[in-house]
C-alpha cells in the first residue's frame, strides 16, 4: 500500500518528518517497508508561464521557438517540440537549474542553433500522468511567474506500507490516517463520505438479483450526462504517487475512491448492460468472459460472476468485463459497490492467475457498510469532475442470507489489562486509544464496554484483541519483560527443546548459518528431486488456500527450502554457502492431522573455509566435509552412530550414505537420515555446483541421546598404541571395518581410527589398504604384552572374517 504523505496530510497532519512518522507507525504495528519520493526532487525553478508567440524553428520541422511570459521584464525563449505549443496558452515551465524526477538538471542549451532557456513540460515529465502527446495546458487565469508548486502537486514523500491480512481497513488512505491519529494524537479530519449528494430509496433504470451468499451486499447508483475525459492534474498526481496509472476521469475516480476508502468499485456503461438487468450468481460450466486486460477466461462454479441478458459481464471482485466497460462515448454510468466473500475471491484470483488491486482488498474481508461509504465519495466526485447527474435512489440488495449489520460489544476489564500485559494502563488512557481507533466506548462497573466498528468486525472479537489494540498504541516498547501469572509455571525448556538448541548451537559454532524456510513447497519439487512415484516424500498434503502456486503443498522435506536459499545466495554472488534449518515437516498419517516430525538439514557448497595467505585455494565442500559437520553434531549430542552406503535418488551415486544411530536403551540401529553430495543434474536445476548435504530426523536422534553425562576419572595408567594395515575388497566400507575392530577389541580397546588409505599395484586391483591406529588401555592397571596380543589376535581374526589380510 503506497500512501502519499500529501494525501495523508489532508486527513491527518502530524508535526513529524517522514522518517519519524514511519518509526511511529512501525512501533504501533504498521510496517513501513520504505520511504520513497515521488515527483521532482525540488520545486525550485518550476513556474507558470504564458506563451506569447510560437514560431517555426528555422532548421527543424518538428520544433517551435516560443516566447514566454514568466513574470519578468523580458520574455524567455524556449524551444519546444510539442504539437500543441501555440500562442495564448498557459503552460508549466522548468527553468535552467530545475531537476526532473529522474535527476536530470536542466541547463541553458542550443537546439539546432537556437538558444532554449528551459523546458515546457508535459505531465509525464514531472510524474503527473502518462500522457506523452503534448505539453500541459494550465488554467488561463493563472499569473505568469507563479511557482508551479502553488498550482500542481509537484512532489511528495510516499510511505510504502506492508499491511497485514487482518487489517484491510488500512488499505485505504483514510484508514491509515485513523492509525496516524491514534499513534500521534494529531487531529483526524471528518470522514470523506460524510457528505453524500446521492439519496436512498428505490432506483429506477436497473434491476439486480443476487442469487449467491458469496455476495453479502450489492449497492449501485446511476449517473447520466457523464462527460468522459482526462482527470484533473491533482487527481492524476495522487494516483501516480499511489502507484496507479490514470486512464479517464470515471475510471480514475473509482481507483481514487478505492485508495481513499479501501472499498473497490466498478463502473459499467449502462447502455451496454443487456436487458437493463444484472444477476449475481455462481459461475457455470461453459461460462466465458473477456476481462478488461483483453484475456478470454473460462469460469467455473466456484467463481462468482455478474451477468446481464447476454451472459457474464464481470468477474466479481476481481476484474470487470470488456463488453460493458466505460469508453469515450459513454454518457450513462452504473456505478457498483459490492461486498464479496473474501476466501472465494482469493481462490478465484489464484486459479486464474489474475490478481488486481480490488481482489487484494476483497480477499481480506471487507465490511458491507463500506459499500455505501465508497459510493458517497464517488458520487460527489462524479458530479464535480464529470458533470454527471445522479439519479434519485440507491440500489441496495443483499444476498439470500442477508448480511451481518450487528456491532459486537466487548467488556474490557480493568484488571485484565495488567494481567495480560504485565503493566498498568489507566482506564482513561484505554478509552482514549480505543476512541481514536474508531471504537465506541462507554464506562462499566469494572472497566469499559467497547463497541467494535464495522471495519474491525473480523479482526477484534474478544477482550484480548482490545488489550492488544491498547498496548500497541500506548507503546509495546514500554512494556516490561515479565512472565505470565500462572500457578506452577517455570521458565525453562524441556529436555527435547534443550537438545534442539544444542544441535542448532553446535552447527552455528561450526560456521553454518541458520535459515528459516517456508512451511510450504512447490508442487513440482518432487519431480525436480527425481523422486520415484512411490516415494513417501511425494505424499504432500495440498493447502486449501495457498498464498501462491509455489506454496501449494505442505512441505515433506527441508531440502527444497535449503536449495532455494543456496541458489539465491549463489546467484547474488555469495559462492560459499554453509546453512542449516531446523523445523517440522508434514507427512500424511491415518489420523485427521498429519505427522510433524522435527527435521534438521544442512547444506554446504563452495569452499569449506576462507582462503588465507598459506592456503589460497581452500578445499571445496564434498561428502567428507558434510560428514565432518555431521560427526561434530552427533558426537556433541553423545549419540552412537555410523553411516553405511545409501541410494537417495537426488544424491550422487557412490557419494551418498544413510545415517544410523543406536537407541539409548539398546536394541537395533535405526536409520535417522541421509548424507551425501547432490546429484549433478539436480544441482544444475538449482544453479549450484558441487553441493553436500545431510538430513536427520531430529526427534529420533534426540530419543537416542543417553542420559546425563557421568564423570569418569581419566586413568593414569599408560595406553599401548599399535598400528596395523589390512587389505580388503574396495567395496567394504571403512565404517564396517572400524565397527568390527571395536567389537573384537572389547573393553580394553580404548580407541581405533583409520589414518591412511592406499590403493595401487602393491595391493592389487579392486583392493584397498586401510592403516588402523589402535589404543589399548585399562582404568585399573598397566596392560601386559600378553593381554594386548590376545586382543590384537582377536581383531586380526575378525578382520579375516571380512576377507581382510594383514600387510607386513
From TrEMBL:
Its main location: cytoplasm. Binds 2 magnesium ions per tetramer. GO terms for cellular component: phenylalanine-tRNA ligase complex. It holds the Pfam family FDX-ACB. It comes from the Bacteria. CDD domains: PheRS_beta_core, tRNA_bind_bactPheRS. It catalyses: tRNA(Phe) + L-phenylalanine + ATP = L-phenylalanyl-tRNA(Phe) + AMP + diphosphate + H(+). Residues 405-481 form the B5 domain. Residues 40-149 form the TRNA-binding domain. SUPFAM superfamilies: Anticodon-binding domain of PheRS, Class II aaRS and biotin synthetases, Nucleic acid-binding proteins, PheT/TilS domain, Putative DNA-binding domain. GO terms for molecular function: ATP binding; magnesium ion binding; phenylalanine-tRNA ligase activity; tRNA binding. Its EC number is 6.1.1.20. It is an enzyme of class 6 (ligase). It is found in: Cytoplasm. Mg(2+) binds at residues 459, 465, 468-469. Its cofactor is Mg(2+). One of its GO terms (biological process) is phenylalanyl-tRNA aminoacylation. Residues 715-807 form the FDX-ACB domain. InterPro entries: aa-tRNA-synth_II/BPL/LPL, B3/B4_tRNA-bd, DNA-bd_dom_put_sf, Fdx_antiC-bd, Fdx_antiC-bd_sf, NA-bd_OB-fold, Phe-tRNA-ligase_IIc_bsu, Phe-tRNA-ligase_IIc_bsu_bact. Tetramer of two alpha and two beta subunits. HAMAP family: Phe_tRNA_synth_beta1 (MF_00283). Belongs to the phenylalanyl-tRNA synthetase beta subunit family. Type 1 subfamily. NCBIfam families: pheT_bact, YtpR. This is Phenylalanine--tRNA ligase beta subunit. It comes from Conexibacter arvalis. The gene is pheT.
